Amino acid sequence: MNFDDTPEEAAFRQEARAWIAANAPKHLKEELELSGFGGLYLKSEDPMQAGKAWQKKKAEAGWACLHWPKEYGGRGATPIERVIWGQEEGVYAKLSGLFTIGHGMCGPTVMAWGSEEAKRERLPTLASGEEIWCQLFSEPAAGSDLAGLRTRAEKATDGSGDWIINGQKIWTSGAQHSQWGLLLTRTDPNVPKHKGLTMFFLDMRSPGVEVRPIRQMNDQRSFNEVFFENVRIPDNQRLGPVGGGWNVSLTTLMNERLSIGSGMPTGFPDLLDFAMATGDVDNPAVRAKLADWAVKASGLKFTAFRALSALSKGETPGPENSIGKLVAGAMMQDIARYAMDLQGEAGVLTNAADAEARGKFQAMALRSPATRIEGGSDEILRNIIAERVLNLPADVRVDKDVAFNAIPTSGRK
Amino acid sequence: MNFDFSDEQKQLRDSARRFLEKQSSVAVVRRVLEGDEGYDRELWQGLAEMGFTGAAIPEEFGGAGLGYLELCVIAEELGRAVAPVPFSSTVYLAAEFLLAAGNDAQKKNYLPKIAAGEVIGTFAYAETAGEVTAERIKATVSGGKLSGTKIPVADGSIADFAVVAAQSGSGLGLYLVDLTGPGVTRTVVDTIDPSRKHARIVFDGAPVEQLGSGDAEAVIAAVYDRAAVLTAFEQVGGSDRALEMARDYALERIAFGRQIGSFQAIKHILADMYVSATLARSNCYWGAYALSTGSAELPEAAASCRVSATKAFQHCSTNNIQVHGGMGFTWQFDCHLYYKRSNLLALNLGSLSVWENRLIARMRARNSARDAA
Amino acid sequence: MNFDDTPEEAKFRAEVRAWISANAPHDLDEDLKKSGLAGLRLPGRDIMAESKAWQKKKADAGWAVPHWPKEYGGRGATPIERVVWQQEEGLYNQLAQPFAIGQGMCGPTVMAYASEDLKRKYLPKLASGEEIWCQLFSEPAGGSDVAALRTRAEKADGSDEWVINGQKIWTSGAQYSDYGILLTRTDPNVPKHAGLTMFIVDMKAPGVEVRPIHQMNGGRGFNEVFFENVRIHDSHRLGAVNDGWNVALTTLMNERMSIGSRLATGFPEIFGFVADFQLPDGPAIDNAAVRAKLADWAVKSSGLRYTAFRAISSLSKGERPGPENSIGKLVAGVMTQDIAKYAMELEAEAGVLTSQEDAPAAALFQNMVLNSPGMRIAGGTDEILRNIIAERVLGLPGDVRVDKNVPFNQAPGR
Ligand SMILES: Cc1cc2nc3c(=O)[nH]c(=O)nc-3n(C[C@H](O)[C@H](O)[C@H](O)COP(=O)(O)OP(=O)(O)OC[C@H]3O[C@@H](n4cnc5c(N)ncnc54)[C@H](O)[C@@H]3O)c2cc1C
Ligand SMILES: Cc1cc2nc3c(=O)[nH]c(=O)nc-3n(C[C@H](O)[C@H](O)[C@H](O)COP(=O)(O)OP(=O)(O)OC[C@H]3O[C@@H](n4cnc5c(N)ncnc54)[C@H](O)[C@@H]3O)c2cc1C
């Protein structure tokens, strides 16, 4: 056990630190520090431009997606090096929100299932932030029950080998900014639901793709509905075998877990700073709350680190890593509410100019409900832990071994 | 960086587990729980022979000189086995006080015997209900004689010697007292976990020897931080075992024609137990590392693992009963051994609120230093 | 809405108060105050004798089970009067513990289903505490899933008697009970709920064997009960053959009707405790962290009280108490456990002590911590109560049932 850097790690940290000190957009630092979860407060610059610029700079120096192989835009860093980079990058990582899904989920899926040509063409521009990717999985009738999706992919009848897509996705984060998307479709409705799926990647600028932003409860518009009307995808953009889409999607989800090193925000450091600034930290009632969250936050951090050690030894990260989002999501919601409580009547204010801590906790309160839903709801994560870690029996399933088109559902048209 | 125990340490864990499964079986725990023996002698001897009591005692004082990471591994297994032995009093407290404040002669006198399992030691601190503070200590040493009453003293009825916190002309001090000597009256008191006996000790002119001359409160705080990490490992071991018991029962018990583990109400209880046990374990690794390296982070790490592990063990042991239904409430099933131990360990080194308060005070100090820099 | 007594209620309250102050066993006051949720503790006295004495005294004056009809040992009190009585009886109500199951669950079931003869025979003595009853529902294979029970009742050839064979478990008070209500299986060839029948059983009958179970808190309050060819006359059947499930529902519904009876939460106990208890910087009640905890429990406790009062108002209007009253035990059980743990936390090192002499607050909280796990299981576990609220109050679908419409002897998991 060694929580400190080895000499090589220390050297790497030094190098990263020096590069960041020389290159980071320091003029944005203060604004980034005040940006909380659920809001990037960049007044002086367009967030998209600022994000792309920082990503490009990193890519040129070999710091983008550093754990990816060199030939695909990374630098072949170890998992620990990646964590060190994350620690050093600090607040500037907040600029990379746009690329999280692409780097964390789409990229690794292409890496695992794409042809060499596809990898060399698509991955470097994804790493450098020149192209943004989105993940087109969820549908109105298929969220937690993802395999219940209905978007159809059918072989074109013209002999081209192309696929024709019809259907609708929903909740697609960043679709409005994306050049590429990872798309899960149904190719065979006559077999049980997990067996008739196929994965593709597609150009979001293809004819027949329509993106309609959804207005969220926090008044942002980061996710979308995406409609497909006779959209053509060449067969060489298929990932994995026809009918093997479920397996491919598991790679995506497993890679989501691999991003553990980056660590889920919990809101705790923000709250501690806030309570120190106001002097509330002297109140025993506040301390009791803080202590509870403090040990959760450190517990999460070191759980992620332990997973990293397993990873470094070549073990695959397992379902046990589902606890990160489960704990962090609810915690962030509680923390946001408690910080607002400490602010008293002023806690209702949301405008950065009027509100305490520039409305950071209010933004967190309005964004955090989504954390507990996106990418696996709290309930689904508990099921995963219970079934896949503790080996408890699966829920009694009414749709098992039933052909997809014979499954009971609410609202099949 | 490496956030895991080494292969050798894992082997040590396996052998400790095998040893305890045999020597600290539930039958052994129950014998102490239901009987008048203060502890299981055979198990205690066995632990000494395995080198466990002296695991972190330097070789020059007769220890195995293994180190604190190894001691953490052993502590976890003791917690898992709810071992009925005076290990924490002797090893985490008495030995640590000697190492922290003892002079060479005192170390030479006691430590080899602790490593050999020949003596049992303890720390006598609390006198009244509520958080122990220097002001609340009334026991007094004057003219080399100690008078006053300490309650509860873990293993106080079986210990050979105690480190006692008492007042003297110059404020709070630490003293070594031979509990088998004159001026000492001890009675076993009933506690929430009778598998770990506690005593009331009345000192009436008991001869003492001073232990260290520095700031006693600082020494106590430092030793408590160390003991907190080790106790947290016991709590994590207990949490894991309680979780396993609940899981196994959930797979076995049928209601409404199904394994109860197939109901989400039960699955989600178990998932939440897993979460709290895992967070506590991860915090404990941090504590273990800080303890073993003497890191400046130890006070914060110790409070973190103490708070986290106390909560986890109480959570897991409570829900273990719940998952067992009526069976969980019987004496015959083992759930209560863990429930009782969790409630005991939650208080033994000072309670949750005390440690919560300490944790935040320490984090504040760290952040203030950061902001000043 | 009126949270105060009407003039009639005030008059009733005055009468009750006067009678209690003239008749209650005041010599037990000190011990009763220290008992509370720790369980009844009357050092140096025979608890059962003290309980029976107080119950008898109440019965002689018409105050035993006030809401029962006069002819069965009550005084025909209204639901509100019953609450007033309970508020005034206060501490002494703890003495009624041995009769709680009999009067709260068995009595009402007998009242609803037994013949007039049997009602007159059994109820007055149940009311007066001369006879104690127990409830024989749970079995090793049927706790939450009580309809999975296996104890057989078979008609003896050519007689009016039933022969009982099987085993019950967790039967509280069986060791000192005179009678019990017994749920049995009379037809294993139909789905599980459709083959049950309820009886009154004489606990002293030949073939009944009671074996106390050692509880985790050291007590022996519940038992295993074995039946070997125990004979019960058909006149002691409650409800129709194979209609036992419906009869059991009456019992359980009546359990809910006892809501008025103070649901213990531990709140008054901890509130009293922190007022005196000294933290290093002053009384615990002045500490902000303590206050935050107390406030949380205070509103739960008042929420429960007023939820119960609202149910009493519906009851007074003739409405039947519904499943929404399941929240009482669900909230109180966990709360008791949390309160006990927190009080021990404040006591710090001394919190481990459990004898009345050594422990702070006479070990009240330590006993609570050891009793409370049972509260969260007995009479419907927390999980079952949540299912009831979800399914019967909120109208959510039931769990997928693998044993539905399957004959009992072919159900999975047997
Ligand atoms: C901010 C945000 C961003 C998102 N971004 C993307 C994206 O980029 N790409 C994409 O494909 N998707 C995205 N999603 C969709 C997200 O993955 C789904 O919302 C999520 O999987 C839940 O599906 P649902 O909304 O259909 O809810 P449902 O599945 O209908 O769930 C409703 C409720 O039922 C519960 N539930 C469902 N099944 C079970 C079960 N078996 N056991 C117990 N409880 C159950 C759930 O926990 C939840 O509480 C995003 C969502 C959000 C909120
Ligand atoms: C102190 C005490 C006194 C008692 N007194 C009596 C008495 O006088 N007479 C009497 O007849 N009985 C009595 N009981 C028995 C009590 O009613 C049962 O213990 C209770 O119904 C639970 O049944 P079980 O113990 O078989 O647990 P199980 O039913 O086996 O339950 C085990 C676990 O599974 C869960 N579970 C079961 N089914 C489901 C489901 N469908 N969904 C989600 N979770 C589920 C439970 O919540 C529990 O956590 C007493 C019990 C106690 C503890």
Automatic annotation (TrEMBL), chain A:
Acyl-CoA dehydrogenase/oxidase N-terminal domain boundaries: 6-130
CC cofactor: FAD
Domain Acyl-CoA dehydrogenase/oxidase C-terminal: 243-390
InterPro entries noted in UniProt: Acyl-CoA_Oxase/DH_mid-dom, Acyl-CoA_Oxase/DH_mid-dom_sf, AcylCo_DH-like_C, AcylCo_DH/oxidase_C, AcylCoA_DH/ox_N, AcylCoA_DH/ox_N_sf, AcylCoA_DH/oxidase_NM_dom_sf, Mycobact_Acyl-CoA_DH
Segments forming domain Acyl-CoA oxidase/dehydrogenase middle: 134-231
Pfam families reported in the protein's UniProt record: Acyl-CoA_dh_1, Acyl-CoA_dh_M, Acyl-CoA_dh_N
PANTHER family linked: ACYL-COA DEHYDROGENASE, ACYL-COA DEHYDROGENASE FADE34
Annotated family: Belongs to the acyl-CoA dehydrogenase family.
Identification of the protein by name: Acyl-CoA dehydrogenase family protein
UniProt organism field: Camelimonas fluminis
TrEMBL record, chain B:
Gene3D superfamilies in the cross-refs: Acyl-CoA dehydrogenase/oxidase, N-terminal domain, Butyryl-CoA Dehydrogenase, subunit A, domain 2, Butyryl-CoA Dehydrogenase, subunit A, domain 3
The keyword Disulfide bond appears for this protein: no
Pfam families referenced in this protein's UniProt entry, alphabetically: Acyl-CoA_dh_1, Acyl-CoA_dh_N
Cofactor: FAD
Domain Acyl-CoA dehydrogenase/oxidase N-terminal positions: 6-118
Molecular function GO labels: oxidoreductase activity
Principal EC category: oxidoreductase
Domain spans labelled Acyl-CoA dehydrogenase/oxidase C-terminal: 227-354
Keywords attached to this entry: FAD, Flavoprotein, Oxidoreductase
EC id: 1.-.-.-
PANTHER family, alphabetized: ACYL-COA DEHYDROGENASE, ACYL-COA DEHYDROGENASE FADE28
Family, as annotated: Belongs to the acyl-CoA dehydrogenase family.
Name of the protein described by the UniProt record: Acyl-CoA dehydrogenase family protein
Top-level taxonomy: Bacteria, Pseudomonadati, Pseudomonadota, Alphaproteobacteria, Hyphomicrobiales
Automatic annotation (TrEMBL), chain C:
Keyword terms: FAD, Flavoprotein, Oxidoreductase
Listed cofactors: FAD
Protein name, entry field: Acyl-CoA dehydrogenase
One Pfam family this sequence matches: Acyl-CoA_dh_M
The Acyl-CoA dehydrogenase/oxidase C-terminal domain, residue ranges: 242-394
Domain of life from the UniProt record: Bacteria
InterPro entries in the cross-refs: Acyl-CoA_Oxase/DH_mid-dom (IPR006091), Acyl-CoA_Oxase/DH_mid-dom_sf (IPR046373), AcylCo_DH-like_C (IPR036250), AcylCo_DH/oxidase_C (IPR009075), AcylCoA_DH/ox_N (IPR013786), AcylCoA_DH/ox_N_sf (IPR037069), AcylCoA_DH/oxidase_NM_dom_sf (IPR009100), Mycobact_Acyl-CoA_DH (IPR052161)
Annotated family: Belongs to the acyl-CoA dehydrogenase family.
Domain Acyl-CoA oxidase/dehydrogenase middle span(s) in chain numbering: 134-230
Record domain Acyl-CoA dehydrogenase/oxidase N-terminal: where: 6-130
